[in-house]
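User: I'll paste a sequence; please echo it back and then give the predicted structure.

Assistant: Echoing your sequence first, then the prediction.
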Amino acid sequence: MIKRWVIPDIHGCVKTVRKLIENQFCPIPQDVFYFLMDNHEEFMLKSVEQEPPSGKFFNLGKKNLYKESWLANGGIECLKSFGLTNMNEIPKEYIDWANEAPRRKRTGYHDGFYFISPQGTGNITSPN
């Protein structure tokens, strides 16, 4: 049976999530995975949006209000996963992906989708 999985808020841990999916859920090639944006991705997008361009010495008094929070909540690990220290160097394709990702809804099984949450899955059961 083909399954559709919806996974939010991976905290920048793509490798960990991949191993979890492969080892715990044993998907078949036809399964479909949807990754939703959550607070960490939102912090990243707002941080990148407010960060002055690389090489700019002055930001005319504007402070990046999200940068510290993002860096403290997975931003450092995210940058390391790209081999970067500067958030302006995150590849545009990933920023675009995060901007286009749907927002998290809930955990459980609904309308043919399995919803996975970092807060725990509870008892997810398929009606089949």
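The radius of gyration is 17 Å. Strands lie at 4-8, 32-36, 108-110, 113-115.
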